[in-house]
Amino acid sequence: MDYALQQLLNALAFGAEYSLVALGLAVVFSIMGLVNFAHGEIIGVSAYSVFLAAALGLTSPIVAVLLAIAAAALAAIAFERVAFRPVRYAPTTTGLLTAFGVSIVVQNLFMLLISPKPQSVSILNGLNQMWFFGPFAVSSLQVMELIVSGLTILALVLFLNRSTLGLAIRAASRDFATVRLMGIRANRVIATAFAVSGALAGIAAVFIMARRGSVSPDLGFSLVLKAFVACVIGGFGSLPGAAVGGMLLGFIEVGLLVVLPQEYGGFKDALTYVIIVALLVYRPEGLLGQRVELGDKEI
Amino acid sequence: MARTEVARSEMSQAIENTAPVAATRPGGALARSLIGGLVTSLPVLVVGLLILNFAPTYHTFLALGAFVNLIVVVGLQVFMGNSNIANLGHSAFVGLGAYGVAILSTPLAMKKLSIPNAPFGFATLELDPVSSALLALLAVGILALISGKVISRLSGVAATIVSLALLIIVHSVFLNWTDLFKGNQAFFGIPKVVGLPWMMVMSVVVIVLARLFKDSRWGMQLRASAQSPQAAAALGIDARRLRLMSWVLSALICGLAGVLYAYFAGTISPKLFYFQMIFMTLAMLILGGMATVTGAVTGVIVLSVGLEFIRSIESGVTIAGIQLPQLLGLSGVALGVVIVLCMAFRPSGISGRYELDELLSRFFRHAK
């Protein structure tokens, strides 16, 4: 029972992290159709700025958390301004490849300017403790991950539903031209979407650093690949789809870890992707995606 | 019959191909794209012959690597250029080709050292290089057919992500199935049977093949459906089948590159066929221009030379008596910058829409 509960919590925590990152991708994709491969490097920038601040003498974990989120949001806005604005109206493939290029550049800049080796960051280790609830021992980080992700998603939903800018973002994902005709600036909507996506990445970065205790140039890359997969399962561009897809991915991964014998543990990633590809054979448009034929009018 | 003719002219309008289109005789088009492919491969032949005759051994080795990249990039072009879907998984096929021949053709004495516990009797099997290559390509083809079935059903973005998933699946199998693939360690002892002449022949074959596919009715229909899915579907084009076809052809060409790599290097390891190769070949294709085979060739030539220059700086050089430190990651930055700048300022790459022979014929027509 204890073991089952522990694994359930594991799955929920992994799923929550994937959902956070996948939501960040979906927010940007739903508005401007950009497949943001550089999302992982936003996590990277956030982590490295905490690392640098810690090296310069920052000691407060709360400040570090705030810094991580702010740095990620700023990095996202900066990426948009520098790299993605010139290809804003270009076809999806162009945007995708640009983002891929940005990702390579930033990863290699970390390597070039800081170090190719992982660097230790201990400032957030305090988040990772064991909590005891009666007979159960749980990792505080996983509980926090779950709660914070839940709250973040709630805040995102409120923001998108209640604020004018949120409304504009949702409208822009349907019909950008009309949103602009209503007198809302395109740049502002897109910058906000990137800031939101960056903030989500920053929160994920905090948890990653707390768990690993170190930063490395490819910190966010593999995570973002998984988040992409989560988006694809859920239906690309759909926000609920991203959240559900992330959770599902967490459950598949932990389920495989439980089921697979120890010596085949290395095949976890491969099998995860195989399961997902198999899912896509049956629902090519994703679980929550709608089957849209080109030229369909939206009602 | 008449309907296909109409469809054809519609399509050639759709893709705005203003290059000389005068396919009156059925044989004429074939001959023209055959000659076009040969013209495109001419620079490759010239570079290859120069290196073959004049360059020192070290440069020959570099050139062999560049030729492998060339074949990979041409293979990538076959899918990306025609279907306009980004493929980030092609090096999985390169790896499979290389490991295929490694497992089949390595001498038994070597196998006792490297993979003594290989399953399915591979540990006691030693085939000649040609049949191993054919079997490896068969394996690549089967994997491509299976993965292509999935990928051709998906929309553009999802297809790209699944191609990436394929890369990760294959890489993780290489790493973890240690009995067969030796895991993270280098797989050595593959017979070194391929030199520069063979590499050149294969490059030319592949370039011509890519060009023939591009100009064939399937290639044209695929390009049309990438430009306007609705119009193409209305004309009765089965885009899925065509995507599958180009995916398999692209995979086979990439697999061939892997086979050749294994046969010239003699030693392979999984990390050679992972993201590093994806980054580099993608940057080459984008820089050259992915719409044309000429673009693929141009990109490989330009970036191979450029990267070699950057690598010499990266390892720390002495300029005017000052020793620069090692700059790890510089070539990565350069590749990324090339991709980003190209996408922003010239998405069609250096060569744009025209093949080399089309450019030449336009040039001479204007000169007259």
UniProtKB/TrEMBL annotation, chain A:
<feature type="transmembrane region" description="Helical">
    <location>
        <begin position="96"/>
        <end position="115"/>
    </location>
</feature>
<feature type="transmembrane region" description="Helical">
    <location>
        <begin position="50"/>
        <end position="76"/>
    </location>
</feature>
<dbReference type="InterPro" id="IPR001851">
    <property type="entry name" value="ABC_transp_permease"/>
</dbReference>
<keyword id="KW-0472">Membrane</keyword>
<dbReference type="GO" id="GO:1903806">
    <property type="term" value="P:L-isoleucine import across plasma membrane"/>
</dbReference>
<protein>
    <submittedName>
        <fullName>Branched-chain amino acid ABC transporter,permease protein</fullName>
    </submittedName>
</protein>
<feature type="transmembrane region" description="Helical">
    <location>
        <begin position="20"/>
        <end position="38"/>
    </location>
</feature>
<comment type="similarity">
    <text>Belongs to the binding-protein-dependent transport system permease family. LivHM subfamily.</text>
</comment>
<keyword id="KW-0812">Transmembrane</keyword>
<dbReference type="GO" id="GO:0042941">
    <property type="term" value="P:D-alanine transmembrane transport"/>
</dbReference>
<feature type="transmembrane region" description="Helical">
    <location>
        <begin position="223"/>
        <end position="252"/>
    </location>
</feature>
<dbReference type="GO" id="GO:0005886">
    <property type="term" value="C:plasma membrane"/>
</dbReference>
<feature type="transmembrane region" description="Helical">
    <location>
        <begin position="189"/>
        <end position="211"/>
    </location>
</feature>
<dbReference type="GO" id="GO:0005304">
    <property type="term" value="F:L-valine transmembrane transporter activity"/>
</dbReference>
<keyword id="KW-1133">Transmembrane helix</keyword>
<keyword id="KW-0813">Transport</keyword>
<dbReference type="GO" id="GO:0015188">
    <property type="term" value="F:L-isoleucine transmembrane transporter activity"/>
</dbReference>
<keyword id="KW-0997">Cell inner membrane</keyword>
<dbReference type="GO" id="GO:0015190">
    <property type="term" value="F:L-leucine transmembrane transporter activity"/>
</dbReference>
<dbReference type="GO" id="GO:0015192">
    <property type="term" value="F:L-phenylalanine transmembrane transporter activity"/>
</dbReference>
<dbReference type="InterPro" id="IPR052157">
    <property type="entry name" value="BCAA_transport_permease"/>
</dbReference>
<dbReference type="Pfam" id="PF02653">
    <property type="entry name" value="BPD_transp_2"/>
</dbReference>
<keyword id="KW-1003">Cell membrane</keyword>
<keyword id="KW-0029">Amino-acid transport</keyword>
<feature type="transmembrane region" description="Helical">
    <location>
        <begin position="136"/>
        <end position="160"/>
    </location>
</feature>
<dbReference type="GO" id="GO:0015808">
    <property type="term" value="P:L-alanine transport"/>
</dbReference>
